[in-house]
Write a structure and sequence with these properties.
57% strand, eight-stranded antiparallel β-sheet, OB fold (Dihydrolipoamide Acetyltransferase, E2P), mainly beta
Amino acid sequence: MKLNINIKGKKKIIEINEEEGKVKIKIGKKEFSFKNNNYKKEGISVARTNIPKNKFSKKEIKAPIAGTITKIFVKEQQAFKKNQKIVSLSAMKMENEIVSDFQGTVKSILVKEGQKVKEGEILVILK
């Protein structure tokens, strides 16, 4: 899963991947990897709950976290490319740009700007 976030006016890319029982979190150029349920380093504390392998599927794009939809960058029937912005989600006073992990075509958009969404809620359905 890849998120573009804005922290104090600076854009950061956060990547979360799970491979072979390890969770890897990459924030900018720093990478953190852990096996156990808890990991603590440089003032960052992560409690591993249920991090999915991938929030995206080939048929739908889901909200990686709960928040409010602030911008929708695609339209129905529109083709999009890998790493293209799909929606912007505001959560915990941060703007999170959700980008695609693949290319495809938008079948339907299930949310509107200003709408509150829950983690895992389907935002966009693909063809």
